[in-house]
Amino acid sequence: MDEDGGEDMLDLESLNYDDLDSVSKLQKTQRYNEIMQKVEDALQKGTDFSNQGSILEEDPEYQLIVGFSTATSQFRVGCLEQADVFQSTLPALRTRACRLIAAKSTLAARIDSIRGDPTGKAGRNLLEEIRKKIEKWQEPPPAKLPKPLPAPDSEPKKNRGGRRLRKMKERYAQTDMMKLANRMQFGVPEESSLGQLILSDGLGEDYGMLGQAGSGKLHVSAAQSKLAAKVAKKFKEKSYGSSGATSGRTSSLAFTPVQGIELSNPQSHGNLLGSETQSTYFSETGTISKIKRT
Predict the structure, then answer these.
(1) Measuring CA to CA, which residue among 38, 16, 36 is closest to residue 27?
(2) Which of 140, 204, 247, 262 could form a disulfide with 194 if both were Cys (CB 3.0 to 4.6 A apart)?
């Protein structure tokens, strides 16, 4: 292996570049001379810039460098960016326009692959379709029309049933007390809140069936409301108060002035409370007395 490597090195050392020139004929061309001259000029400018330490803004090379910045450059979409329909589109719509042009270009390429339209009519139709869609995107949204008022003397709209409607009816339903207040007894004059007859002067507010003496309708029992029962059930399910967890700072040790630290038994305190204090208030043999009316 070492002998083969040594032979390769000898071949490279004995290589004559004139042989390469005779093969490629590149160094004798004018294009090669121009490229090499530009490379030498660029290297010379690089050394000049390093010696100066600064680049002037008037230098065209500086403008080229600034133009290649990612902050000022636009997004590149290939050859589609050079199309007239793309350049005439607003910058805010160019992303959507690029997708549309790419899709239509694919359809046009498929048509050309099978030579389906030698006249180019399909391509012109696709271009016109693209322009119409871009113009449609630029149109403002339709204005919100004012809601017309309902026609007078029209039949009331029938509300469909549902949970929301039932809740609203139950919330705003008329109570039994208001039903009795709005009811009149036949042949009995009504009295107002001012104590005068309504038939005479019409002042005050009448109570209807609630204002009749001896009717027994003033005390109205509260009707059971489904909505109130649901709210009460939801309120009961919520746990208010202590969660049962003890704090880490609580202790059963009590500090007394006599013995210092004293360990107390919490069960003894509970037994004392139940045996002495509560026995004076509650009795196992005592009953609730009931006074009979005469």
Answers:
(1) 36
(2) 204
Going by pLDDT thresholds of 50, 70 and 90, the confidence category of residue 100 is very high
Cite the DSSP H helix spans in the chain: 2-13, 17-24, 30-52, 60-67, 84-87, 94-113, 121-138, 163-171, 176-181, 226-237, 266-272, 278-281
Clarify whether residues 85 and 134 are in a common domain. Answer: yes
Q: What is the dihedral of CA 226, 228, 231, 237, to 10 degrees?
A: -80
Domain count, the chain: 3
**Residue 44 resides in a domain:** yes
**pTM value surpassing 0.70:** no
pLDDT of residue 23: 41
Q: Examine residue 119 and state whether it is found in any structural domain, yes or no.
A: yes
pLDDT band at 152 (very low <50, low <70, confident <90, very high): confident
Q: Is 23 part of a structural domain of the chain? A: yes
Q: Which of 186, 212, 238 is the last residue of a domain?
A: 212
Sign of CA dihedral 57, 63, 68, 71: positive
Integer Cα distance of 161 and 24 in angstroms:
93
Return the CATH number at 127: 1.10.246.90
What is the distance between the alpha carbons of residues 74 and 155, in angstroms, rounded to a whole number?
Answer: 63
Cβ pair 198, 191 in contact under 8 A: yes
Position 199 in a domain: yes
Confidence of residue 101 (pLDDT cuts 50, 70, 90): very high
